[in-house]
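Notes to self after the Tuesday call (sharing in case useful).
The group wants a holo model before anyone commits to mutagenesis around the pocket. I volunteered. Ligand is NAP. Logging inputs and output together so the record is complete.
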Amino acid sequence: MGTPQQQTPAAGIGTSEEIEQFDAIVIGAGITGLYALYRLREHGLSVRIFEEGGGVGGTWYWNRYPGCRFDSESYTYGYSFSEELLQEWDWKEYYSGQPENERYLNYVADKFDLRPHIRLNSRVVSAVFDEDDDRWLVQLEDGHRARGRFLITSVGILSAGYTPDFEGIDSFKGPWCHTSRWPKEGMDLAGKRVGVIGTGATGVQLITEIAKEVAHLTVFQRTANFCAPLRNGPIDDEAQREIKATYPEIFAKCMATAGSFMHQFDPRSAMEVSPEERLEQYERLWAEPGFKKWLSNFYDVMMPGEANEDYAEFFRNKIRERVHDPVVAEMLVPKDHMFGSKRLPCESGYYEVYNQDNVLLVDVRQAPIERITPAGLKTSDAEYELDVIIFATGFDAVTGSLNRLDIRGIGGQSLKDKFAGGPRTYMGISSAGFPNLFTINAASVGNFVRAAEPLVDWVSEAISYVRENEFTRIAATLQAEDDWVNHVNEAGAKILRSQADSWFVGANIPGKARVLLTAPDSAPVMRAKRAEVAANGYEGFLLE
Ligand code: NAP
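Result:
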């Protein structure tokens, strides 16, 4: 294991006068950052994580809103690198909730003795590449500084919360918050008139949960979503034993699929089987838990066309069946985007919430929000009195979390400026003119942990290659970057994920360039590509 060259006595935390030295600096102690720390230390590097939060867990530290939980099977979402960890940890539910997920990541931090290398409550404000000694100088908000040869931004793809710039928000008399900054001490909603803006995966989980306790709930919906029953439940002892005995098979299944989920598409076309057989499959999947309804269906359901629309109509009818008031039901039925073009929110009684007398659904596409008032919220046709406002308005995905850091490469070039028209990287990982920077958050897709582990392994091996061959710089060539950006734009335009106005393409943020923010390729294709690049001596990278 490497050790920092200069370390202060108290848990390695330096004062503002000194500059700590590490081989690698990792920003963010979420799923990816924790694993990067573990893996890089295994490779013999001294590593420091700087984490803005007061604890580890990233997404699972910040998103404490009621109802927050996995949408992927818990046992597919844990780390796979340690057999001991797999056997020790009992997932209690098939789709585990935030408190348990945070507890898991804390358990990992303790088990692998990661904490001494993590500095919490440490917001990075800038990272500047020092061209004279080929190292990154990282500056924290509190004045602390550190230097490292390699910089890994494991800052999450959905971590920069987006709160629309509504006029009057400061005048609101009650408490308000964005779901990703839910107060640790909780919010007292019992008996209150609560307004929720946003009905994405977050809003759907939150609304279902808080509808149980609030006096009145007003949901401000701009776009109706396709949402599917999660069908969560406890994992009993027998299932637990079965899971633990079959982890290799579970992970092998995940690694074989496009999004690293454990669900495989049916190779048949929906339109080639009889209508009866088609419906039978739809109904069977509907009764199953989780993403099966999305990812185990006829393959052409996930392609623009007739099959996609056929299944969309099946979903719409399911919504109509569950909501008593036909006018409200029609408001909840998505009609403006294709099924599967957004990540499918999973729910546990969401639509039934709208059958409650104390719940009101407001269409803010038809009558947009004009302003927040001291007493609530005003749309173009009515005013709503509220005690609490919750913004479930999503994230400035992928680039948002990078833009909050002032990252400067060769010649003082700003990464934010460079990415203004969309990420300019090679494979999401590296950007020309930013040596030794691994924008690991720009490269993951699908089931996060399954995507993050191989990605971190690849980056760790690349770093070891650089060190062993006594290079001091590695960065994508401009040519490789141009080719990759063209590939993302061309291949990305054809896939379902690019068709809707969602965070996948930056369309949820006013003024943000519309481009696919992640790779258009499947996870196996990306792993093969990275392996080939490495096997060819890091082809497409400039090693100096
Ligand atoms: P989101 O999908 O971007 O949804 C944001 C919501 O806010 C949308 O309904 C959006 O409406 C609305 N909104 C934004 N600006 C608005 C405005 N000015 N006026 C009115 N409405 C506005 O964000 P999210 O729900 O946080 O989910 C983001 C992603 O996080 C998901 O796709 C998923 O990948 C992940 N996630 C996963 C889980 C899980 O189960 N593990 C849970 C939560 C989130 P429009 O649709 O019209 O833009």
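Two things stood out.
Confidence is low (pLDDT under 50) at residues 1-16.
The first strand starts at residue 19 and ends at 27.
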